[in-house]
């Protein structure tokens, strides 16, 4: 059961799923490349392995999911996980729509009702990348949750984080999570920390590659009034990334418990 109602503690998870493709060594990027284009029998089984730990989180940000195409057997993977892990609220965002072949997406799973969700279009050399912006709380005391998967190009990331930073500053409190494709000490991250109330992690949490984590490129960043209680990667091998989790203590003025759902309604929203 969530600690949000009892202690105002929010449990957050971010996970680059690699559309349910397990990768345990570099050669599998080549031998398993076909799995990015056509169905494979283990995809849903791999995702099912995530259910047991997804259930213990209040808000989950997903990257490299699929909104329903040939490779996923036309199953919206964000919706699939929401139903299996009993999240009453879910949202997906298509970043690369290749029609029947693939619908590259970000996803949000939530046990708390957001009062608004929107797509934030991000600049880049190749159009399509977006951020999910979910708004919680009230307009008087708000929490903004951003789910992102940033570009590989440093120049594009600079522009993307500059735009995201402007939106982060619109909220009393904010959480930015996802695959940022850059380290904490990168130029683009330094600019983000200098221009917002987001603060850099207290320690490095390495998430990539999953079989031998060396790089801290998946992040959960929070603004200064959210107290970080714990943060770590989880040893779960359903992707080429490890999931990253965080527990934060919310300020007393930010009460989300009234919009927390403990049971699964008959319909997801």
Summarize the structure.
This protein has 269 residues and is α+β, with helices and mostly antiparallel strands. The protein contains seven helices and eleven strands.
Count of DSSP strands: 11
The number of distinct structural domains comes to 1
CATH architecture: 4-Layer Sandwich
Query: Average pLDDT, to the nearest integer?
Result: 92
Please identify the structural class as seen in this structure. Answer: alpha+beta
Which series of helices and strands comes N to C? Answer: HEHHHEHEEEEEHEHEEE
Query: Beta-strand percentage?
Result: 25-35%
CATH topology: the name is: Deoxyribonuclease I, Chain A
Strand order of the largest sheet: 3-4-2-1-11-10
Task: Describe the protein.
- The chain is of the alpha+beta class and 269 residues long.
- It has a single domain (4-257), classed as 4-Layer Sandwich (Deoxyribonuclease I, Chain A).
- The protein has helices at 4-7, 28-31, 43-48, 51-54, 77-84, 154-168, 187-195; strands at 9-16, 59-66, 89-97, 103-110, 116-121, 130-137, 142-149, 173-179, 218-222, 227-233, 244-249.
- The chain has a six-stranded mixed sheet. It has a five-stranded mixed sheet with strand order 5-6-7-8-9, with no helix packed on it.
- β5 (116-121) and β6 (130-137) form a beta hairpin.
- α6 runs parallel beside α7 (187-195).
- The chain is globular and about 50 Å long.
- Mean pLDDT is 92; it is low at 264-269.
